[in-house]
Amino acid sequence: MVKLLLQIVxxxxxxxxxxxxxxxxxxxxxxxxxxxxxxxxxxxxxxxxAFPGRSARWRESTARECIRRFVETALYSFACPYFSESRIRxxxxxxxxxxxxxxxHRAAPRATLFCAPHxxxxxxxxxxxxxxxxxFPSFASIYRPIDNAAADAFIKQSRExxxxxxxxxxxxxxxxxxxxxxxxxxxxxxxxxxxxxxxxTLLFDRLCSTTELPGILAxxxxxxVYVLYPRYVAFWRVELHVELVSHDGxxxxxxxxxxxxxxxxxxxxDNQCASWLWGHQRWKSQTGASVRLRLEQKxxxxxxxxxLRNLSALPRRTRLWIRLPNWLGDVVMALPLLRALRTAxxxxxxxxxxxxxxxxxxxxxxxxxxxRPLPSAGGLAYFAEFxxxxxxxxxxxxxxTNSARxxxxxxxxxxxxxxxxxxxxxxxxxxxxxxxxPASYDEARHHQTNLWTDYLRHFGLTVAPDRTPVPLDxxxxxxxxxxxxxxxxxxxxxxxxxxxRSLIAALPTQQFVLFGTAHDRVLTDAIAAGFGERxxxxxxRTGLLEFAAHLQTxxxxxxxxxxxxxxxxxxxxxxxxxYGPTNPRRTGPIFAAPTRILQPPGCxxxxxxxxxxxxxxxxxxxxxxxxxxTA
Length: 631
Known about the structure:
The chain has four domains: about 1-80, no CATH class; about 85-275, no CATH class; about 320-460, Glycogen Phosphorylase B (Rossmann fold); about 480-630, Rossmann fold (3-Layer(aba) Sandwich), CATH 3.40.50.2000. About 40% of the residues lie in helices and about 15% in strands. The chain has 23 helices and 22 strands.
């Protein structure tokens, strides 16, 4: 039934006036472009990645023409079994390069590979025997059969009509090797979506899995390697071109050279660019959710690529967007994971999405390629910014937030992968993949950074978080003691004013610097009152980057559980953290710098005590010990 239906459709197309088929092609292509949004987005994403400097108008035009040509190709594939030889000769026109390649083979027979990229009108290449002068050499083509037996038989019969032998990949390559051993010619698809059996390579500076079969056969048989491709002229009119590919004779060299040829052809030739199969996932390698955050392939030719391209590092073209938390302390606790991601996916362009106030510090730390502030607008205008961001085509959106708001932000970008943590009873339907915490997972006993590490491991991260401090350039480690006496989000996290004053009074020869926001100014004024110049009150007078620079000059910091405590720890500043109601096992300092955690008497290790119960005396003793330790 399937074969009969294909025959009827093909016969009708072949007998129809060409102008009607041309009109039908345009209608189908228009409907496909409008209705199949997922495929349209793949095309636009691929074009945007490959040609970020080209205009949106050019990409739109190329995408539409790409779809139209492949609809045209599909209709030709149905109709060509019913075309006469004379009509096929009008459709597929030979070129001087085609004549020259076969003349060279006749003059000096040798094993020869004709590698065919994914260009429109591929079926015309099966009619080579009609276009070649003189006797046609022993020639076969390797093809991938389709699952439907009737449809596969129809296609095979059509392609073998003019003497082209079709060799199924499923039946192995014995016949292909026998052909090359006898100095015959073999056509083979040059594919950049070869899955786990391919080699990790670059195309337009993005990772892909390229079939090594042409390279393996070329190396084994010393074969000449050509690229065979149709060049579009008009509706159902193409020229068949052949180009000799220069290579070093190794399998790796041939594989890379073919990709380089394709990349250059698509860059310089808009006509040929519109004929390539942009609607397929040529860059599907390394995109599975379980391995997204690492590079893993049996065959890896990236070192060869870097040498040939004279590069010291992989281009960063995989677009990984990372939505950071809304609190400074949480952002700092995520930094070790950002460093691990940079190491694990050196090909990733990391874009950090965060509050605008955090961006100067993040830029100074140089942990990402791009920084994107959260919109300043409110209401629908806020989310409209994320909807517009879909035109930047992020590949993966990684959320360190747990809110529906953050999930909606990610969904609006249309990133094809959106990762987050799933907790029991808290569905996150706008994510594509989740690390689901089991009901037995006690978050109170796992540090936030360790939880995030488990989360990222679920998506393939194997690099350990880097907890070494990240000091800023500039002056470091003076003798003053810094004090962070406020708390941005919870007054219960504040050590009492009288206790701070007792600490300062107990160290009469020591210089102190009070830090905080403008909201902490009343508090710090009360603490500093009467101590004169040895207590400097900077609360509300520094931006985040200036605050970090001042922290770095402190010989020691004493702080409540605040973002500033975590920032100082990340900068490598020795510190004493005062924890009462909050849980140091979950939100304690994580960087490898001198640290002491103090809690009120009787307070559980997971927090819950009143910070006012922590007397000044143990804090004063800890300060003396830390000063001696870090002197």
